[in-house]
Amino acid sequence: MKKHNFSAGPCILPPEVLLKASQAVVDFDNSGLSLIEISHRSKPFVDVMEKARTLALELLGLEGKGYKALFLQGGASTQFLAVAYNLLENKAGYLNTGTWSNKALQEAKLFGDIQEVASSKDANFNYIPKGFEVPSDLDYFHCTSNNTIFGTQLKSFPKCDVPMVCDMSSDIFSRQLDFSQFDLIYAGAQKNMGPAGTTLVVIKEDILGKVSRQIPSMMDYKKHIGSGSMFNTPPVFAVYVSMLTLEWLKNLGGVKAIEEINNKKASLIYSEIDLNPLFKGFASKADRSTMNATFTLENDNLKETFETMLKEAGINGLNGHRSVGGYRASMYNALTLDSVKVLVEVMSELESKA
Amino acid sequence: MKKHNFSAGPCILPPEVLLKASQAVVDFDNSGLSLIEISHRSKPFVDVMEKARTLALELLGLEGKGYKALFLQGGASTQFLAVAYNLLENKAGYLNTGTWSNKALQEAKLFGDIQEVASSKDANFNYIPKGFEVPSDLDYFHCTSNNTIFGTQLKSFPKCDVPMVCDMSSDIFSRQLDFSQFDLIYAGAQKNMGPAGTTLVVIKEDILGKVSRQIPSMMDYKKHIGSGSMFNTPPVFAVYVSMLTLEWLKNLGGVKAIEEINNKKASLIYSEIDLNPLFKGFASKADRSTMNATFTLENDNLKETFETMLKEAGINGLNGHRSVGGYRASMYNALTLDSVKVLVEVMSELESKA
Ligand SMILES: Cc1ncc(COP(=O)(O)O)c(C=O)c1O
Ligand SMILES: Cc1ncc(COP(=O)(O)O)c(C=O)c1O
Ligand SMILES: [Mg+2]
Ligand SMILES: [Mg+2]
Ligand SMILES: [Mg+2]
Ligand SMILES: [Mg+2]
């Protein structure tokens, strides 16, 4: 049976990417060797790394603008730490929009003063704070563009006199933005880009080199840039699959083209959530994420029926995170509009049964 | 043409492992979903992680002895840093046997005093220092069991009153040792265990919790242990392939069985190096690595002929590291005796041509 994979991450990837990746694990580009058993210093792999780095900048519209792209290990969680190591001399500001931005903030506390610029904790992070000002005495301002767990998304970003750092783990490459307003963007691959195991970091080079502490090599963005994202052995497979996925996106028409599809998917699910009396959206309407739609089923007695219907329809990964409960439909780039239609049909069928 | 893959890392893996891994990328255990698109918190993946962790301890004979196994991101290079973060309060001792141990030592310097207990730098690291004493006032002693670049290997380890930490990146699971003499073992997967992208860390739990500094979450072994090696999204594919490779090794008869094969491969190449007047070994005989045989071709005029012959025989990855020059035959667990025979034939054919 065809599966409809709404998993929050690791998540669905384009079938043609999976097929090519699978092939490369036994025979990479007809070399007679597997992708994962060749030297990372060999020309075929260096080409993969360079292509992935170039595609990332190209798709964000950041080529020739002083940015460098890196594919590192350690997940976005390691970037919580690396950002502070590289940029925090005295004080940084964090926008607290949920679990992940709070974790980022906590890790940074080991390296300097942290000011919570605004927070939506008062309403279990179901909205994005607005109207706050970013102080101009900060080393940097940090925000999380999409809150995977709560299903909220920043639709615009504050004016910012200091470097702006953004965790885009769960919505990078999903919508058009002026990406040059950010000075550092990071994103774990395992949503819109590839498998778990690599993290994209896009850095405006001129923000580096301004802290007085010594930075351990593996945390040092300058060292990673200087070695072409190969300071040590890179996560070869994860970088390769990311490259394939970025290629797929480029061939599809890039971020502009996928944004249209993502908007369609989001409209479809949110109008069902709103119109269907059995379901209720969690996030404040203005801040609803196009990537993760969070909602609850109002009538507990229908839970079993609903979940059986989901299973029968081949729908996977719809459980909400424990911090929110209910359901979460993650609709990353590779999820088709058809899969959302299948989900919406199940939801409306439940209504007719109830 | 069949390839004989002598790459130093990433390196050869068992063909049956590659086949299973390739299959899992399109359809994991007949689930209809790819291994890389399911949640790492789902039971099928948690089972993979737990099996990998258990197999690692079992193959090292460390089950039930107070050790925990972790599969982390960041490569062995991140462990250079993590070891010091977790264990270095005042002073640590390092045995300097080449590039990697020197890098480990340099990173640790950011966290405390470092004493170079012994070094073989005087002879470009072509031997392992012996007869040194490990001071008893150290927080820990660090050594590198196999020096991938220079082709030397510790055949025995010093008596040590303080915790002993060992970088086994390039010879873990290749030979029998009393692994309980070590308190912390780490190894990048990309030699004897799997693809680049994960690092095995095996820790005797009772050495932790003794430093006064605050440790960032992603560097904190206790946090990783407490969350079952899933503090954040693990590198799913690399862990899965490592699990498959450890399973393969167990089915083969474990470390004891592979050690016999590894010894045969090493004897074969080293006797050719010694007997063939065209070649000269780099490492001191007593310290020769069973994993990486380093050697030079004495007559530069034969270089082109030799390399053409290697190519015609399907031999890949024989170039030496720039710090040593010449050639390096890496003979990790998955390399067959047959491949070594093919190489030795080419070497002796060169002699007959010369
Ligand atoms: C927005 C966001 N930031 C950070 C993370 C943590 O990523 P990782 O598990 O790669 O460390 C996640 C994971 O889901 C996330 O959604
Ligand atoms: C003995 C040893 N230690 C450490 C490393 C560094 O490993 P990584 O590239 O995974 O950081 C290597 C890499 O070849 C190695 O051989
Ligand atoms: Mg700015
Ligand atoms: Mg409703
Ligand atoms: Mg001891
Ligand atoms: Mg000789």
Automatic annotation (TrEMBL), chains A, B:
L-glutamate binds at residue 41. The keyword Nucleotide-binding does not apply. InterPro entries: Aminotrans_V_dom, Aminotrans_V_PyrdxlP_BS, Pser_aminoTfrase, PyrdxlP-dep_Trfase, PyrdxlP-dep_Trfase_major, PyrdxlP-dep_Trfase_small. Keywords: Amino-acid biosynthesis, Aminotransferase, Cytoplasm, Pyridoxal phosphate, Pyridoxine biosynthesis, Serine biosynthesis, Transferase. Pyridoxal 5'-phosphate binds at residues 76-77, 100, 148, 167, 190, 232-233. Binds 1 pyridoxal phosphate per subunit. Its EC number is 2.6.1.52. The modification N6-(pyridoxal phosphate)lysine is found at residue 191. It catalyses: O-phospho-L-serine + 2-oxoglutarate = 3-phosphooxypyruvate + L-glutamate; 4-(phosphooxy)-L-threonine + 2-oxoglutarate = (R)-3-hydroxy-2-oxo-4-phosphooxybutanoate + L-glutamate. Residues 5-342 form the Aminotransferase class V domain. Pfam families: Aminotran_5. Pathway: Amino-acid biosynthesis; L-serine biosynthesis; L-serine from 3-phospho-D-glycerate: step 2/3; Cofactor biosynthesis; pyridoxine 5'-phosphate biosynthesis; pyridoxine 5'-phosphate from D-erythrose 4-phosphate: step 3/5. Its cofactor is pyridoxal 5'-phosphate. It is an enzyme of class 2 (transferase). It is found in: Cytoplasm. Its main location: cytoplasm. Catalyzes the reversible conversion of 3-phosphohydroxypyruvate to phosphoserine and of 3-hydroxy-2-oxo-4-phosphonooxybutanoate to phosphohydroxythreonine. Belongs to the class-V pyridoxal-phosphate-dependent aminotransferase family. SerC subfamily. Homodimer. HAMAP family: SerC_aminotrans_5. This is Phosphoserine aminotransferase.
